[in-house]
């Protein structure tokens, strides 16, 4: 068993890159991920998994074809599987994500970022 | 699709009971749960699922037979499936939990608390 809790803020201090997800733990076949984002991502969807976003710091807008949702710290949103979405952040924003192991962040393995463990 | 983010602090303002989990969302067949705890729970394990704890406020100790882990705000811990544990909090503590739908909080359906949606 791990002998220490995962401090999310401490993990986020370990890197500066944007849109570069880092795996900080594992839960029921899912990766627990922290990521820093700023600017606009790409429209994409995940056919086989819901997409969970929890804002730790900053502000995230998740655009969807039917409308947008904006999240501040302590707010979460689950994009249902298959639904196209485009995350956008005007300021640098820190997120906790939960995704099945191996999920490509862009929805497409050819363009997906690697997800190293930290 | 849900048109609003889930504000965890706002959800936690809706109730006062301790050890009374409330479902605030759904993700890949799992319930997203908020709960207030204080004092000592019971030793239990979940044979079929890992157990994810994220502290939002306060301080939680998770006792396990091999040792204890203490978590403050912004810290998470995953108890591996099958491992006996006993959560304890000296002060009132607020948590986000993620559990497969229908998971009994005590590990035993006979003694488990109901999990209403709020």
Written account of the structure:
The structure is a homodimer of 118-residue chains. Chain A has 118 residues and is mainly beta. Helix content of chain A is 4%, strand content 48%. In chain A, strands 2, 3, 4, 5, 6, 7 and 8 form a 7-stranded antiparallel β-sheet that branches. In chain A, strand 2 and strand 3 form a beta hairpin. The two termini of chain A are 17 Å apart. At the A-B interface, strand 1, strand 2, strand 6 and strand 7 of A face strand 1, strand 2, strand 6 and strand 7 of B.
Helix-strand pattern of chain A? EHEEEEEEE
> How many distinct beta strands of chain A?
8
| DSSP helix fraction of chain A | under 10%
If interface size is counted as residues with C-beta under 8 Å from the partner's C-beta, which chains form the largest one?
Answer: A-B, 37 and 36 residues
**Treating each run of at least 4 consecutive H or I residues as one helix, how many helices of chain A?**
1
Give a quick account of the main beta sheet of chain A: strands, pairing sense, barrel closure: 7 strands, antiparallel
The value of Rg of chain A in angstroms is: 13 Å
Low-confidence stretches of chain A: none
In quaternary terms, these chains amount to homodimer
Estimated share of beta-strand residues of chain A:
over 45%
* General form of chain A: globular
């Amino acid at each position: 068993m791990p002998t220490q809790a995962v401090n999310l803020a401490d993990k986020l201090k370990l890197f500066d890159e944007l849109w570069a997800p880092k795996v900080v733990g594992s839960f029921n076949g899912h990766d627990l991920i922290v990521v820093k984002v700023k600017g606009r991502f790409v429209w994409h969807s995940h056919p086989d998994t819901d997409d969970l976003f929890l804002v730790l710091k900053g502000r995230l807008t998740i655009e969807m074809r039917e409308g947008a949702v904006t999240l501040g710290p302590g707010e979460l949103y689950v994009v249902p599987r298959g639904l196209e979405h485009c995350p956008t952040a005007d300021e640098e924003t820190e997120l906790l994500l939960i995704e099945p192991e191996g999920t490509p962040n862009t929805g497409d393995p050819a363009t997906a970022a690697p997800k190293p463990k930290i």
